[in-house]
Specification:
It is a single chain. With 152 residues, this protein is α+β, with helices and mostly antiparallel strands. It has one domain (25-147): 60s Ribosomal Protein L30, Chain: A (2-Layer Sandwich), CATH 3.30.1330.40. It is 35% helix and 26% strand. The protein has helices at residues 2-24, 69-87, 108-118; strands at residues 27-28, 45-48, 51-57, 60-61, 64-65, 95-102, 125-130, 140-147. It is globular. It starts with a helix and ends in a 5-residue tail after the last strand.
């Protein structure tokens, strides 16, 4: 009897896990406002289940990095993230995790001021790291994970 119950629970667990994985199969979404001729080696957004993973965004508009320093770059980067989210019927309040990459850790305070304007409490979890360099000599890059309401 115990062996039959164990086998039943094991099979039930495998079936539930398989159903969950089937729902989690990634959906690769169209590219957004990134400069690309189709040879980009990554997706700008991938939906897996109720999560949307956004690739890192830079303050790149009109074929160039915006001028104005870390505050301007942070503001535009967050605007681009908001646009990407909006295209997927999400908003900044749906973001659950961000990773911020700074080319200079001394920019932390100025970045943080602008960042706090973009997210209302409760703000998403966040990691901020300093790196030795970013694409296009950007001062900042931000990647995010957003969550859909299960009913969407």
């Amino acid at each position: 009897m115990r062996r039959t119950r164990f086998l039943f629970l094991t099979v039930a667990g495998i079936l539930l896990a398989s159903a969950s994985l089937a729902q989690m199969s990634p959906k690769y979404l169209k590219k957004f406002h990134d400069p690309s001729d189709g040879r980009m080696p990554f997706s700008t957004a991938v939906r897996a289940g109720d999560l949307l993973f956004l690739s890192g965004a830079l303050a790149y508009r009109d074929g160039k990095l915006v001028d104005g320093g870390i505050a301007a770059e942070t503001r535009v980067t967050l605007e681009i993230i908001a646009e990407r989210l909006q295209e997927q019927n999400l908003g900044m309040s749906d973001v659950v995790k961000c990773t911020v990459f700074l080319a200079d850790i001394d920019d932390f305070a100025a970045m943080n001021e602008v960042y706090m304007e973009a997210f209302s409490p409760p703000r998403p979890a966040r990691t901020t790291v300093a790196v030795s360099g970013l694409a296009l000599d950007a001062a900042i890059e931000i990647e995010c994970i957003a969550a859909y309401d299960p009913g969407r």
